Amino acid sequence: MSKIRVSAVQYHLHTIDSFEQFALQSEHYIKTAQEFGAEFVLFPEFFTTQLMSIGDGNGNVLTINDLPDFTDRYRALFSSFAKRTNMHIIGGTHVVRRGDRLYNTAHLFYPDGRIAEQAKLHITPTEVHEWNMAPGDGLQIFETSKGKIAMLTCYDIEFPEIVRMAKAKGADIIFCPSCTDDRHGFYRVRYTSHARAVENQVYVVLTGTVGALPTVDFMRANYGQAAVITPNDIPFPPRGIMVEGELNDDMIVTADLDLELLYQVRERGSVTTWRDRRTDLYTDWS
């Protein structure tokens, strides 16, 4: 079967008092996606920064260096969701520590309990200078029972080369968790997601954080909207938007992706951008 039902969460960030509150909020979205019959559900980038708002019990706010301390609980929680619901969950991104470096890492939770990771490959100046993040060092394509996917986080989607590489390695769907704090950042990610869908004739499933964390530096402002983005050709909506959320609302969107339509437009669409790329002039990767 070539159809895949996907849901994308516009995760509402607000101050919480405990990990249990984070777990209950996450479970609410998981159950909603399950009720819609989703097979994949996408959470946004940096949504686990909500855990920093818990504080240390003495009135002190947690910092980005404290966030990896939640990794084991986060992974156990989302792995249990995936196994219980039989869904593939792209658990947004969570900050993990490797040695003395921090990595902004997308997680794929399989229904059978496996957990796969993709560190963000291109990191923003804020991530470098304020949070001392390190970039990932390789692109992975993930095999699922429904086909091959890639997880490219926010700024990653703004680089055509990496998405072309993902398609050349067989990915038909790019899941893009993002987190943007104003309209400028939001539209950079949104417009380049459309460009990548046109260039590579793939689906892009995109979402972002909404709400605010008043006590967490660099997470006070969020401007977000989920969307399922398609190539711009006759089998798809003219604007290349299968579904989109309401800007900055706490909600979830759901759509069916038909992989067969991708294969059709790659062969005989109005344009055949993937087939017509000039690999004699520029390679997919070296």
From TrEMBL:
Q: Which PROSITE patterns match?
A: CN_HYDROLASE, UPF0012
Gene3D superfamilies, per this entry?
A: Carbon-nitrogen hydrolase
The molecular function terms in GO held by this entry are: hydrolase activity
Key words, A-Z: Hydrolase
Keyword Secreted listed: no
SUPFAM superfamilies assigned: Carbon-nitrogen hydrolase (SSF56317)
Q: Which domain of life is it from?
A: Bacteria
Annotated CN hydrolase domain residues: 4-259
Report the sequence similarity comment from the record: Belongs to the carbon-nitrogen hydrolase superfamily. NIT1/NIT2 family.
Q: What is this protein called?
A: Carbon-nitrogen hydrolase family protein
